[in-house]
Amino acid sequence: MNSNQTIDRRQFLKGTAIIGASLATAPGLLAADSPAASFPSGKIRVGEIGCGSVSGSYLPNLTSQPFIEVVSVCDIKIERAKQRAEKFKVPNVYPNIDEMLAGVPFDLLVNTTSMPSHYPVNKKALEARRHVWSEKPMALDVPHAKELMDLATKNGVHIWVAPTCVTSPQFKFMADTMASGKIGKVTAGHGTYGHGGPGWSGWFYQNGGGSLYDLGVYNVTTFTGLLGPVKEVVGMTAILNTTRKVEDLGEVKVEADENTMLIMNHGNGVLSHVQTGFVYFDGERLAGEARQLYTIDVTGTKGTMHMQGWDWGPGGVDIASQGDAVLETFCKDPGKYNWVGGATYVAESLLSGKPSLMTPEHGLHVLEVMNACHESQRTGRRISVETSFKWPLFA
Ligand SMILES: NC(=O)c1ccc[n+]([C@@H]2O[C@H](COP(=O)([O-])OP(=O)(O)OC[C@H]3O[C@@H](n4cnc5c(N)ncnc54)[C@H](O)[C@@H]3O)[C@@H](O)[C@H]2O)c1
To answer: Which ligand 1 atom minimizes the distance to the CA of 137?
Structure first.
């Protein structure tokens, strides 16, 4: 733990203590001298909201942790919540966030609703002094995201946002390799993530959805995490289909980006770009199952690094460098890393007090970069980025 992180933690605990009196009645959030003291059962009580596709991957992970108790699930489509509750033996089911917050107490809200619902749901949870793990993005625009972060600070709770890719061993290996100087001065990055587009929910194609928020966000998080905060952005986006057919809404008008190219200037001459889309060949599974495709490339003056597989589920890192210009594979072991393990990771962080590698400041920055891409498309101009975050992550 470095000194900045120690200060952050102390400030958090101080903040928690200051508001302790007003929190005395808030479940699981008693004034605390130590992180674990805030959670008398030694477990983090979780309520998950949004019981669609991804909840089917989150719940097995959450319910298999000895230090987590999933107490409630919620969905405006109540049948979905009931099905998840039955399958994963969750005792309480709610039809909306208000009833969930007023119901059985919990400490951490896990928000896996559709992206346009993230901000209003996160806001209500923070107002009720619950910690929040949100699927990406935490809100659709920077002012709303900042409002959530301020609200969390004011109420002595935390908000964290997916994705989790900076917590993979392969991400750390790449960051450490860069810091070691093995590939010289890093100059450029290339990332790609796309498929044929989700077929289950219409919101992915409507305003507030899109391939950049849903898929490109992983690469943007990886490159800002590896190469540093972005100073300016140039982007282009395209819509190729007037309408798409989806399971929940039938035919929907496509309003959000289906095909996106984003160029990022990280300063000091370091450039990266991300391509992402819902209009990519869907059959190619090599990046996923066999981990044979590279999706993240980092180039330096003395070597190159290539991440095998997707950055949310990497399979290893191949490196070639001066004096040894043949690709060799390193870091194949995923360790404890799990792409749906973000809420579990932050629950551990709440119990131990250990700072999280994923920070809301980084999530805010990624959001601003993505929105700068859309603004660049709208205006035809390159867009400056104002926000930043503590970098390098492993300093
Ligand atoms: N599906 C995946 O494989 C996947 C993977 C990684 C991340 N994600 C992210 O997870 C989130 C959810 O994606 P999904 O594919 O599960 O979507 P989905 O459409 O399958 O499920 C979203 C669920 O949220 C519910 N919901 C929406 N607004 C609500 C509200 N205000 N209150 C309560 N319930 C509400 C919907 O009824 C729906 O059941 C998105 O941010 C997505 O980017 C999804």
So the answer is: 41
